[in-house]
Specification:
The complex is a heterodimer.
Chain A: H1 25-30, H2 34-55, H3 64-83, H4 87-90, H5 95-101, H6 119-134, H7 141-161, H8 166-171, H9 173-181, E1 187-191, H10 194-198, H11 204-207, E2 209-210, E3 220-222, H12 245-249, E4 255-259, H13 282-300, H14 305-317, H15 322-353, H16 359-367, H17 371-388, H18 393-401, H19 415-444, H20 449-472, E5 476-477
Antiparallel strand pairs in A: 1-4, 2-3
Chain B: E1 2-6, E2 13-20, E3 22-23, E4 26-27, E5 32-39, E6 47-50, E7 52-55, E8 58-65, E9 68-78, E10 84-94
The chains are: A mainly alpha, B mainly beta.
Amino acid sequence: MTGPAPLSPPHPGSSGFDWLRVPVIGRFLRWRHCRMAMQVPLFLVGMAMIVHGLVGPQLAPRNLATLLTWVHFRGALVLVMLAGGNLFCMACPFQLPRELARRFFKPVLRWPRRLRNKWLSLALFVLVLFAYERFDLWASPWWTAWLIFGYFAAALAVDAVFKQASFCKWVCPIGQFNFIASTVSPLEVKVRDPDVCTRCTTLDCIRGTRGTPGEAKGEVIQRGCELALFQPKKEGNLDCTFCLDCVHACPHENVGILTRLPASELWSDRRRSGIGLLSKRKDLAVLTLVFTFGALLNAFGMVSPVYAVQTWLAGLLGTTNETPVLGTLFVALLVVEPALLVGLAAWLSRRASGAPGPLLPLAVRFSYAVVPLGFGVWLAHYGFHLLTGLWTFIPVVQEAFGLGAPRWDLVGFPVRLVVPLELGFLALGLLGSLLTAWKIAEREAPSRTAAAFLPWGSLCLLLGSAAVWLLLQPMEMRGTFLGG
Amino acid sequence: MEWTVSPSPPTAGPLTVALKLAEGTKPVAGAEVRLEGTMTHPGMAPVSSVARETSPGSYEARMDLSMAGDWILLVDARLADGRTLKRQIELPGVRPDGRPG
């Protein structure tokens, strides 16, 4: 193994604080094998979770599969996203078997053109949300273990057949969640000095670095971006897994991990490499809406009023089968509600601002405004579980590995301390959404910004109020609303 | 082992668990009985209690269920002759604060 090359001084045109220039951390991240060094421990943890889920105690709070998946992983994911960036994709253990497998065989097919959009991964994202509620995955170590195993298998299978990072870009539901959430992160993998790129002739960041004909037979010795993000034209974190292939490939050391204004990419509509124009991407717009309304739905699933609604729905449908009841709730809250609210906001916005043009493109352009609020809801929800149950992994690890008498008294922070933090996360998300809506309104209706903003600002306030209401409801964790 | 809880159906807050331990028709007296209540969702704070024997073979424990939802009570009894008994009691759908379910 070789260490990273010494770093040249900052380019005069570079902007933002560059984490690759931080001692120790920067040196580690510039090391070619840093990703694998992070993946290996997480892979081992993943294996332990699968084994414990299958053969360990089938009580969710006492099993590593359920505890680490539904409490620690989810909570850490959103907190790291808030403080840094898409570091889970960077250290993704699901990619490790695929990396190893690709040393022995190379896929030959390209991902089908018809599927080069987010619709499939969006459907899978909704499916995971639905399965979580329908099958009470949080309460089942056995099913959670199979879910993790299935994830490993799917990542391996897709990338064994298709070239590039097809699983990450077009399939992975966690990845899509991370891509959307990371739009509000403070860090971005980006070019340090654009002028350097204009003089570049090799384009290694996208093509990869080839060895000389005498060395490695001229083959690619360091791949470029597998997600088709050409650094000079990349903007924002969408579709970026923070794999740092571009960092390692760039012969000019011109790619860094730079700080930026969180969420600012949401109101930019410049054409971006590998993505295109946000305003033309209906699939991405719908993904952002599902991300936000799904956050509210997921939180709604664990407060008392949901059971009254479900029981009422069950009576209305004349069934005690949970699937149609839950399906109706999902359609109502993930399809009908967003369509009505966003449609109404778009109509009012067009009417107030006098902007010409059809309604759907306008709705697409503004829909990115709800992302910060959605992220705030996920953060409040998952952060709550992580912080109130922070230390619960200690006794479970003790019991699993026979490390002394388990300390079942170790739990986490008291609820009374965590609730104000949750409200803070929601407020931060709401402010971010209002700012984003304003900036988009400025772009879309420069002369009547306030009028164009008002309906979208009202929508954000409405959703923010719903989130606060949910937060203040008595929490109730049930999976048995019809039979229990 | 037979068990009842009060209030029934159970609600968040104080809960009394009554247990009867018997071998055939003979009550099992003098056991040390501990209960731990845990939610089906991981990461929630468990609650625990030691039961007292109210009459030969009859035990009673008081617990404070911190939240509505699905609970599981883990019964861990050490009998007078050294044998142990472990049982699991499921309390699905514990309602919030005394409201009917």
